[in-house]
Amino acid sequence: MSKTVIVVDDSKLSRMHVRGIILRNKPDWTVIEAANSAELYGKLDESDIHIAIIDFNMPGDNGLEAAARLLQAKPDIRVAIITANAQDSVVSGIRALGAAFMPKPLEEEQMVRFLAAASLPRRPSSNDAAGGGAG
Amino acid sequence: MGIDPADGFDPGAIDPNGFDLDELERDALTELGNIGVGRASTALSRMIGGPVEISVPMVSLVPGDRVSGLLRSAMPGELIAVTEGLSGAFLGSAILLMPERSGLPLAAAALPPGVPKEDAAELVEEALAEVGNIVLNSCLSSMGNLLGVAVGTTLPQVLRGAGDGLLERCGVTLTAEAQAILFHVTFRTPPHDVEGTVVLALDAGSAVELKAAIGRYIGRVLA
């Protein structure tokens, strides 16, 4: 079934990159974009978003803060946070939210695995849809 | 996180000599810097054994003759520079600049616990060299890998001073033909605020080469 994904990143190039990966692998899905957290909050009620892919290091609320607020409003959304910052504090924060950690530079294969896992009904015990990504 | 970028940086600075990047090239360079700084913060956090907060890097392209004026407005006063020469695909210098007051707390955080106080003083320079080396090499290696070019660096040197004199000792060419890329980023290592700017000073030929490499990178990302 077709899903709607929101890609939140202050880099336009990154958003284009993620959009390309999603549509290459899931041609019937819908991708919407937000350039920062504020834009994400503004678009939450515009459409029925199933999946959010959020950059960590952004102006304003960072990806963790954005994901926390997003999940509070819409607990069923599947979230991946992409970051080159793999500090323990960041990774454990991502895990605590039940989001997937996705290292930058992005690997298409890993994104595809996350999209596949996020398409399935949520398993109660799973708290990391993409599997171990912390390396 | 809410770390404000420094005043005095104009990310939209236009180079009168015609070296400029279009919107997507600038975005790509910012993203490369963002990945580099993210990697650097991970390494730095391991080194100091605690969290490191980083701001979103602000990227400025500056002709060589405007570098010191811009840095003076962002970081007035005495500075510490950890500098490495570049070899390979790009020629120039990579520099981690920080205000003098950031030096001691950063060095103290980087030294292993249990270093006797009397040894700490002489280890400060060594610790700063190591921090600079980690930050610069994390940035340069991730950028080089993404751009598909090999970037080599010489061993780090720690220098102190201000203005043109300091930049010249770091090997920066302060002429309008040379090109500097400034990634201004704030590292915050609670309880201290440690500020730093990563400067990539490239000679004129290397700046053109960088633009070409960024173009190829964009092509690969959007393929």
Automatic annotation (TrEMBL), chain A:
Response regulatory domain sequence ranges: 4-119
Source species, domain of life: Bacteria
UniProt xrefs under Gene3D superfamilies: 3.40.50.2300
Record-linked SMART domains: REC (SM00448)
Protein name: Response regulator (CheY-like receiver domain)
GO biological process: phosphorelay signal transduction system
Positions where 4-aspartylphosphate occurs in the chain: D55
SUPFAM superfamilies named among the record's database cross-references: CheY-like
Residues annotated as transmembrane: none
Species the sequence originates in: Azospirillum baldaniorum
Keywords in alphabetical order: Phosphoprotein, Plasmid
Classification via Pfam families: Response_reg
Residue ranges the record marks as coiled coil: none
